[in-house]
Design a protein that fits this description.
This protein is α+β, with helices and mostly antiparallel strands. Helices cover 39% and strands 23% of the residues. It contains four helices and four strands, in the order αααβββαβ. The chain is globular.
């Protein structure tokens, strides 16, 4: 009987650990900051943003949002920290670091025709 109880405890512990390590899928309403939702709402009604996409990823352990404007060669692309502060790349090495080290990219929104 003790063996069965021990086995049951091990199974419960393994299942509990597995659930704690699982990652919930991205949910636009829950996981998108309000400032970004407002920006996306304005983008969705402005033809300048046709073909644009908004991505979220990590960069040096920070969540950042990348707005890729579909009609430009990224002259008008923007990157923001999670709190809505715009990231200004002050030199080429900072930009290259961003391009080389961003991870875990998720598509948040895209202009669909």
């Amino acid at each position: 009987m003790k063996k069965y109880i021990l086995l049951l405890c091990i199974i419960v512990c393994l299942l509990n650990c597995q659930n704690q390590n699982s990652v919930e899928p991205f949910n636009y309403e829950r996981d998108t900051p309000s400032w970004l939702k407002t920006k996306i709402d304005s983008m969705a009604t402005n033809n300048f943003y046709v073909g644009s996409k908004v991505f979220r990823h990590t960069w040096h352990y920070n969540l950042v949002y990348y707005i890729r404007v579909g009609l430009s060669s990224c002259t008008y692309c923007e990157v923001y920290y999670e709190n809505g502060s715009k990231i200004t790349f002050t030199n080429d090495s900072m930009l290259q670091d961003y391009l080389d080290n961003r991870k875990n990219e998720i598509l948040i929104w895209e202009w669909k025709d």
